[in-house]
Amino acid sequence: MKNTTYFNDKNVLVLGLAVSGYNTALLLFRLGAKVVVNDFKDLSDNKEAEDLKNKGIKVISGGHPMNILEKPLDFIVKNPGIPYSNPLIKKAMSKKIKIITEVELADMISESPVIAITGTNGKTTTTMMCEALLNQNRSEGKAYAVGNIGVPASLVAQESSKKDDLIMEVSSFQLMGTDKFHPSIAVITNIYSAHLDYHKNRKEYVEAKMAITKNQKETDYIVFNRDQEELTQLIAQGAKAESIPFSRKKALGYGTFIKNNRIMFNDEEVMPVDDLLIPGEHNLENALAAITVAKLKGVPNEDIKQAFNRFKGVKHRLQLVDTVNGRTFYNDSKATNVLATKHALESFSRPVILIAGGLDRKESHEELIPVLEKHVKAVVTFGETKSQLAEAANKAHVDTVIIKDTVSNAAREAFKNSEEGDVIVLSPACASWDQYANFEERGNDFIETVRKISQSI
């Protein structure tokens, strides 16, 4: 951690506890700031809040009282999930109080180079790929995946050194709260329309994403998706850093691209496309972005290939689980809507047995019919939506449609009805809350069932 006196005696409000707020408060207190924590929820039985109080940090909970702003504040560290339309935030902005998010704080104290990754889709997978590639056969230091993936960046930044790398997934919510945030390498995987319930409009959303590069210099790098014309224009108009493109569709000659089914970096072959274990064009784009970062950090091609030979995807996101008697199992429990399941099914060229179902939100599954017709040989359904999804499969003229009660029984039935060479994928197209606390629990149930199937062979 940098030896900084900037925070000494500063009056700081940490708005929103959660994991990042707790660590932010501890860090600021350690750096000599006068810290107050405020959370809208009642924290009377919260052990983290009690710990802060025991250390002498003031905690106010059960609302956002406006009188918090009456005492002078040097800045506010805001939980990214709290919108700028919040009355307390609006009042603070009218008083010209500086508002930042935890990633800005992490960047300010970090001795480690920061590699920041954003985009509408693919942030988490690209971040985890970068971590794997940069740690493969690494002789000094370590790459740490932090940020929006659930690991507070400021927590790791306190302990990491100049020999390490912080690979920081950053959302538009976090980037809106940055002032001097300055990654040495920035990555934008893609930009679509999203989170317009949080942002005032698409323009604000795009501006938030582009904030990742606003403080970069000519000696830094901005890695971007050349297949998106809008993003290409935004980079050309607004980035000072050296721009390094990647493309799934065009043989660029510069940057990272595909030529003759080989992944190229500039004029150098890195690896065959077919050596990537995780399926899908979207994951190929994520890999191209991660390879670009790895090459900029000097990772040898052989290490990149070795890392991808081990990388099976991010858990619950089209994750390769196992191959049992020639049947390959994928866990895509994160697919909690129809669009996500469509993308999953489109990732496979081999025959697919789909396991789907979950919470009944009274939504139509008709949009699945075309992709079921094209990619799926059998469907096994479960949960509250089992009948509706079975009906959609029948309309798509899927050969085999089976209704079961649980994920575990559905997985076993899928295996019974499979042949060597088939793909068996849990991609529910529904939320998990009818039978599980969350999609992670549902995915873990599937993984455990696959393990038991493998053991029984």
UniProtKB/TrEMBL annotation:
Principal subcellular localisation of the protein: cytoplasm
EC number: 6.3.2.9
Presence of the UniProt keyword Mitochondrion in the record: no
Localization of this protein: Cytoplasm
Transmembrane segments: 12-33
Biological role: Cell wall formation. Catalyzes the addition of glutamate to the nucleotide precursor UDP-N-acetylmuramoyl-L-alanine (UMA).
Family classification: Belongs to the MurCDEF family.
Annotated metabolic or biological route of this protein: Cell wall biogenesis; peptidoglycan biosynthesis
Gene3D superfamilies named in the record: Mur ligase, C-terminal domain (3.90.190.20), Mur-like, catalytic domain (3.40.1190.10), NAD(P)-binding Rossmann-like Domain (3.40.50.720)
The protein, known as: UDP-N-acetylmuramoylalanine--D-glutamate ligase
GO cellular component, one term: cytoplasm
Catalytic activity: UDP-N-acetyl-alpha-D-muramoyl-L-alanine + D-glutamate + ATP = UDP-N-acetyl-alpha-D-muramoyl-L-alanyl-D-glutamate + ADP + phosphate + H(+)
Entry-linked InterPro entries: Mur-like_cat_sf, Mur_ligase_C, Mur_ligase_C_dom_sf, Mur_ligase_cen, MurD
Residues binding ATP, per UniProt: G119, T120, N121, G122, K123, T124, T125
NCBIfam families: murD
Pfam families per UniProt: Mur_ligase_C, Mur_ligase_M, MurD-like_N
Gene Ontology annotations of biological process type: cell division; cell wall organization; peptidoglycan biosynthetic process; regulation of cell shape
Keywords recorded for this protein, A-Z: ATP-binding, Cell cycle, Cell division, Cell shape, Cell wall biogenesis/degradation, Cytoplasm, Ligase, Membrane, Nucleotide-binding, Peptidoglycan synthesis, Transmembrane, Transmembrane helix
Enzyme class of the recorded protein, top EC level: ligase
Domain Mur ligase C-terminal: 316-430
Start and end residues of each Mur ligase central domain: 117-294
MF terms in GO: ATP binding; UDP-N-acetylmuramoylalanine-D-glutamate ligase activity
